[in-house]
Design brief:
Length: 108
């Protein structure tokens, strides 16, 4: 098993470095395992958007691509959608994401 470390900024602006992300987890699964308040009501199926997060620019470019399903849901977020928005349940583990900075998006 491999793991990488990411930095997470929660909805209160608290920044935590060294948050472990294991290779069999989606980003959402890593965040919920660390008890970040992500509801993930759809269970990671790209249909609820409660796992919305922002990646840093570099990591956004390195992450797996956004598929049509995710794109449709991100489109509905309107003003909370930024350039680097992702549904964290759709972000796949990759060694390239070591050191990524993930900001949990506001609740809608
Ligand atoms: S957990 Fe529902 S869209 Fe990601």
């Amino acid at each position: 098993m491999s793991s990488i470390n990411i930095t997470v900024i929660d909805r209160e602006g608290n920044r935590t470095e060294g948050v472990e992300w294991k290779d069999f987890e989606s980003l959402m699964e890593a965040l919920t395992r660390h008890k970040y308040p992500i509801l993930a009501t759809c269970g990671g199926n790209a249909s609820c958007s409660t796992c919305h997060s922002y990646l840093d620019q570099g990591s956004f470019a390195k992450a797996n691509e956004i598929n049509d399903e995710e794109e449709d849901l991100l489109d509905m977020l309107d003003d909370t959608r930024h350039d680097t928005s992702r549904l964290s349940c759709q972000v796949e583990w990759s060694e390239d994401l070591d050191g990524a900075e993930v900001t949990i998006a506001p609740e809608w």
